[in-house]
Amino acid sequence: MNITQLVFSWPREAQYSCESDTYEGWAIEDYSLEISDIPLQVGDLRHWEGKQWQVAAIHAYSPQNETNNGFNEVILTLSGEIPYRDPWQQDDARLMYICINGEDFSFGWPQRQEFFPHVGSDAPQLEGWQVTSIHEFQGTQTNNNHYYSQVLICWCAPTQVTALREATVSA
Fold first, then answer.
1. Which of 48, 69, 86 is the last residue of a domain?
2. Of 170, 158, 150, 90, which is closest to residue 128 (Cα–Cα)?
3. Helix, strand or coil for residue 148?
4. 99 and 154, same domain (yes or no)
5. Angle at 17 between CA 15 and CA 22, to 5 degrees
6. What confidence tens digit (pLDDT) does each residue in 61-109 have?
7. Are strands 70-77 and 2-11 parallel, antiparallel or unpaired?
8. Is 128 helix (H, G, I), strand (E, B) or coil?
9. Where does a domain end: 86, 107, 125?
10. H or E element: which one contains 154?
11. Which residues of 17-40 are buried (b: 16+ CB within 10 A; e: fewer)?
C-alpha cells in the first residue's frame, strides 16, 4: 500500500487570488493524504479545491522497520512546474507524523522526537482513537529534496476496542 502526503503548492502570488500560476517566489502549501495500491507518477493529475493539479515531484522515503507500506511526499502544482520551497534549517530535525484511522487522518509536525505519538497513546486530533502500530520512514541522506528527516505513520483503532482487546488478553 502506498501512503502519500499530497503537498498542494500554491504560488505565493495566489495567496488571496488563484489568478496567478507562476512560481517566481516561494510557495504556500496545503496538505492532504492519499492511500492507494498504485503509486503516483510525475505528470499525474489530481483535482482539489476546484482546480486541476499536476504532480511536479515525488520524494520516496525508506522504511525503517518491516512493512509492506511505502511513503512518498508528492508535490503538486497548477502548472506541473517544481516550486521553490522554503528550506528547513539543516541542523533542525524535520519530523512529521500521520495518524490514520481508516476514516480520517491528522498530520503533526513536532519539534522533537519525544513529542511523537507512541503505541498506546491517544491519536492527536482524532478524538476517541488510539495508536496501535507505527511504521517509521526516513529521507535518504543523499537526496536533499526530502523535506522530512523522519516520518511516522501511526495506525489507529477506537480507544474502546483497544481497551477491550487488552482486557481480553490479560484475562
1. 86
2. 158
3. coil
4. yes
5. 75
6. 999 988 888 999 999 999 998 887 666 555 566 899 999 998 899 999 9
7. parallel
8. coil
9. 86
10. strand 150-158
11. eeeeeebeeebebeebeeeeeeeb
Reference 9, options 56, 77, 79; nearest CA is 77
C-alpha cell at 58: 515525488
Three-class SS state of 62: strand
Residue-wise pLDDT for 18-60, tens only, equals 455 555 555 678 899 999 999 999 999 999 989 999 999 999 9
Residue 65 is inside which H or E element, if any?
A: none
The alpha carbon torsion through 60, 65, 67, 70 (nearest 10 deg) reads -10
Say whether both 111 and 147 belong to one domain. yes
Beta bridge partners of residue 159, listed in sequence order: none
- Rounded to whole angstroms, the Cα distance separating 61 from 128 reads 29
Cα 109 from Cα 100, distance rounded (Å): 15
